[in-house]
Amino acid sequence: MSTENNQQAPAEEHIMTEEELGEQRQIRRNKLADLRAMGRDPYLIETYDVTAHSMDIKDNYEAMEDQEVSVAGRIMSKRVMGKAAFFDILDKQGRIQCYVRRDDIGTDEYKLFKTYDIGDIVGLKGIVFKTRTGEVSIHTNELTLLCKSLQVLPDKWSGLQDVDMRYRQRYVDLIMNRDVRDTFIKRAKIISKVREVLEEDYGFLEVETPVLNTIAGGANARPFITHHNSLDIDLTLRISLELHLKRLIVGGLDRVYEIGKVFRNEGMDKNHSPEFTSMECYMAYGNLDNMMELMEQIVYKCAMEINGSPIIKYGDKEFDVTPPWNKMDMTETVSKITGIDFSKIDTDEEAREKAIAYGMDPASVNKWTRGKIIAEMFDDYCEDVPGLLDGPCFLTGHPVEVSPLAKKDPADPRITRRFEAYINGWEISNAFSELNDPIDQFERFAEQQRELDLGLDDEAHPMDRDFVNALEVGMPPTGGLGIGIDRLVMLLTDSATIRDVQLFPTMKPESK
After folding, report:
1. Quick check: pTM over 0.70?
2. 3-class secondary structure, 330
3. For residue 81, what are the β-bridge partners?
């Protein structure tokens, strides 16, 4: 019989004032002082022999009934009834009810137990049994205080609800909100499944590349800049994993991948964070079509692992990620949405005229080429069209101007062999048949550097001469894929914002 089964939430919840919280914290400190005076300082304990966990006991009750177990966890509820008490502990698997009697642990220990607070961490040994109401429990015969909690946990009925506080104090959020714990357990399983698909199904090798770089390359984004004192040089936090991984392809490591943090000094919203997790992989002798298949398999197998189904449910929407996925062309999509038939427009001048007539800002448009205009019109007029990018689908046909690292399409050199995968209107991945022509790469970098120098695009890709040198050594035909792990986790866990799937999201410091 747990506390939750026998109590109801009060009609009017009393929220403690700061003064009351301060008094409660002082009481806990006084209890700690008393324990220390008795020679029972819990902080001196270094270890505890745990032999079982909550859900394992519950799920295997038939085999574990009447067996002695040793468990440890945080006290989450407590109901003292004279010479006996029920209390719940929370361990890494969940909660389990425990029963303790004065006659079993002794008068002195039971007196101490009655002073324990919600939030204290205990270890206990006892016999597995069921109460009269059928709840699997542990009959305690030995109890040890392992850690004294000096803070007061949020009220058990409402949990930790303040969103800002949940992100700042994720440790409390994990204690109070089981669904939050489940989300991050699922996140770990998703990342493990991604590794499994890459390594076991496709033979990729996991590697690690630098976080600090002299050039922010591999993407079009604004970097964070820091300074190395000993070398007296400015360095950037990486904005992508790409260029070092492709250097490894040059070096003969034919299939490599990395899962790691990347950093972009940009805006923040429900889908964007300045620090996020990316997976990038590169397959020598592979191409865009191989990357499509790999993307489909990763998402499909992650969905099966987490939900047991290829159907992803997000809010009131459902997405079937069973391969194969649909494909759409960027230029055709822009033409369909705007009515401007770019297939019949060959010059930058005519593209500018049509875009301005449609309503785009002349000051910006007059700096752009035909391809850049198509990409910008897709961003402005297509991405938010309801249902258009619900997917899962692959967007292809990106102009060369916005794809400085992708091969040109042999059928139309104005576009590249590139795709972006979309689900729920979100870009989940980006992939190329990788550009391995060093002359073409140098020219594209040079154009991007020109735009950067002239202030035309502060997110343009800078020149990277060492990467060009690597391509001159020779990189085989290669397919590359990058996946935003956070967004994938958001989809698979039905999480509203990227902060809900990051354990410690970037936050503005609290004002003092």
Report:
1. yes
2. helix
3. 84
Per-residue model confidence (pLDDT) at position 4: 38
Q: How far is CA 231 from CA 217, 235, 251, 331, in A?
A: 21, 10, 27, 47
Q: Which residues contact 411 (CB under 8 A, 6 or more apart)?
A: none
Three-class secondary structure of residue 245 per DSSP: helix
Question: Tens of pLDDT along 80-129?
Answer: 999 999 999 999 999 999 999 999 999 999 999 999 999 999 999 999 99
- The sign of the torsion formed by the CA atoms of 426, 401, 326, 382 equals positive
Average pLDDT, the chain: 93
Mean pLDDT of 213-221: 88
Task: Return d(Cα 426, Cα 248) in angstroms, integer.
Answer: 30
Please report, for residues 23, 26, 175, the alpha-carbon distance to residue 20 in angstroms, rounded to integers and kept in the order given: 5, 10, 22
| 334: its two tokens | 């822009």
Question: Nearest to residue 337, comparing CAs of 363, 309, 362, 358?
Answer: 358
**For the chain, how far is it from start to end, CA to CA, in angstroms?**
45
Amino acid (one-letter) located at 486: D
Mind listing the pLDDT tens digit for each residue in 381-397? 999 999 999 999 999 99
Q: Which two tokens stand for residue 136?
A: 């699997």
Look up residue 31 and give its two tokens.
Answer: 């209890």
Phi/psi for 27 (5° steps) reads: -60, -40
- Report d(CA 242, CA 219) in Å as an integer: 8
